[in-house]
Amino acid sequence: MLENKTIAFIGAGSMAESMISGLITSKKIPAEQIYVTNQSNVDRLIELRETYGVQTLPKSTLPYEKIDVIILAMKPKGAEEALTFIKDKVRPNQVILSVLAGITTGFMEEHLPEGQQVIRVMPNTSSMIQESATAVSAGKTTTLENIEVAKKLLESMGKVYLIDEEQMDVFTGLAGSGPAYFYYLMENMERVGVEHGMTEDTVREIVAQTMYGAAKMVLDRDEAPSSLREKVTSPNGTTAAGLDALSKFNGGGAISEAVKHAAKRSKEISKELEGAKVTP
To answer: What is the pLDDT of residues 254-272, one digit of tens each?
Structure first.
């Protein structure tokens, strides 16, 4: 499905590189069918060309007529300028895909020709190792065929989930920001191990392996986390003592609030980028 597609990235930062790396590694699209451009950093384009073999060009010389999927990968504040620039260059059957936080399909549709196919995407930083949890929401006129093309393309970064756009803010709170919550948990677990005489490298690996194993159990065993938790919690045992402390200090409530606050901020960012007043 993808081998005959031509992709163009407008923006050459870490997210663009994650996607390029995944596409090249998975052999889903030949490097010569991937174009990359940015605002002005020529050295960055040279770096990507030499590393991955992709084609790099100034934005004004991209062969827009040959491109099937245009991916917006610059900073969100540059979205309006980029959409305005490509407005007169796109075709109805092209897909404009945005990996920019806070940029809604409505915002893209407003700045592009009527009926233009658009897709909003929210990956997370684990895309760098092809283990992202990525959400996809399609615009009003985007075809099922092009939604499937986007899913196949994004699977080069990990797992892909098709969701309603009104769920995108909570997805951001869960998966977009989620890795940072786990890193924060790991930081604190690591600190305790070091305080008790373990080396930083050793305790970091132990904590990471423990978290990896727990996540793999959930994915492989098809059991709810609550069920797995109950199975490893013996009455009056060490795990029960640790869970009692989490309950006492409202660890569960803190995680819930983290997700809610991140989702709220995601909604605020969308409003700010679209120039609307944020309501409480």
So the answer is: 999 999 999 999 889 888 8
